[in-house]
Amino acid sequence: MESLKLGDIEMFWLNGGEFELDGGTMFGVVTKVLWSKKFPVVDEEDSARLEENYIKLLNSPLLIKTPDCLVLVETGLGNKLSDKQKKIFRVTRDWEIPQDLKKLGFKRQDIDYVILTHCDFDHAGGIVMRNAAGGEELAFPHARHIIQKLEWEDAMHPNIRSENTYWPENFSKLKDSDNLQLIEGNFTVCNSVEVQHTSGHTRGHQIVRIWSGKEIAYHLADLLPTHAHFNPLWIMAYDNFPMDAISLKQKYEERGIHENAWFTFYHDPFMYACKFDSQGHVVKKIAHEAAQKTVASKKDIPIQYLNVQKENQIILSCPDCLLVREMSVDKHMGRKHFLTVNCPCGTTYGINLNFRKHYRKEVSIGGYYTADDSAPGWTDDGKLPSVSINCRIKNISMGGLGFTALNKVRVQVGDRLKVKFTLDKVPPEIVEKEVVVRTIKDYYIGCEFIEESGYTDRTLGFYLMK
Ligand SMILES: [Zn+2]
Ligand SMILES: [Zn+2]
Q: How far is the CA of 327 from the centre of ligand 2 (A)?
């Protein structure tokens, strides 16, 4: 379990259940072109899943262990969801708070305070739990539950929109109990934990400030649900008071960055907490253990384009440590085109497979071939002076090319040549290859590239994928 030490305080993130929400609603008016760079859609290699547009979200209640008390911030999805509800909300991992507490040596009964930043079902679902006997009870029976009075009133009298998220069953056992403590405005929970009323997301939304000496952390809850929501304008469509949410986020981000504080995230599948610099770059983070493996974004890792060779083998070469290894892609044949590879050196890189054996792209590009170093100079824009063209490239593959010579051929099979041409793409790119002649037929010469094994020409790779 991931944790963070803050002076004499220890913080842990528990599993409050995982689910999926539409990427669009999580980023409000921000276009997918922008948000998907920071937050990939689940299984984005799977075109059907990509079209569905769901993103994975965590619910990570924060356990704060101070020298004198145990505070739980949020309660997760709980264990009362029916199978149908789990389907609707696409729950991919169940609530495991009691189990997580046990791993840390605690019981549910040990929690002194439960802070609810607001009463949406994804935060309040674990207030009341189903017990082993099938009945319902308070999950944290000895805890005082700290909720803003405004929030509680709204949760008790939901409107046509909020009744989708304020569910009576989450409050049933709390309503008439002594465990409920309604507060107004800012409130000190214990020595190192206080809440501040914000509104923005909901009318009674509150945030949590945690400190020990000079070390500080902010749990901004749904004002900053993930690190990708740093831009004050990137707010959720769920926010009830968007303009307030924007200015509150601005205010707390400025304050937190000024205080060199940690920001903790309740919904982020990539990291539980981070520190930002003033530009909003993540400079320190507590990453989610599984994040790097399961939701590694294609955009953040180097990608190689590989042709699958005979017998479905590919030769991999790590871009960092240059370790070369052979791998069979039998089981991916014709199906999965993108794979991530974890090199023993710790680097993760992506490979895009081209299953079309010896795929050759038909082209018609003026070029120059020579058996010595007499290739003429090129103009700055990559154009070959037309007078120097002595061949026309007819086809290109990852392994070689074929061209027709414009004059009488003086080469033989086995000769080494240099071939130079400019790819007909935007921007144009000069390609210069050393080749060995494999076939000659009249004016047509078929060549194979002379390259170290495992070398991948990314420029050509991109060009051929188009
Ligand atoms: Zn919410
Ligand atoms: Zn939420």
A: 43
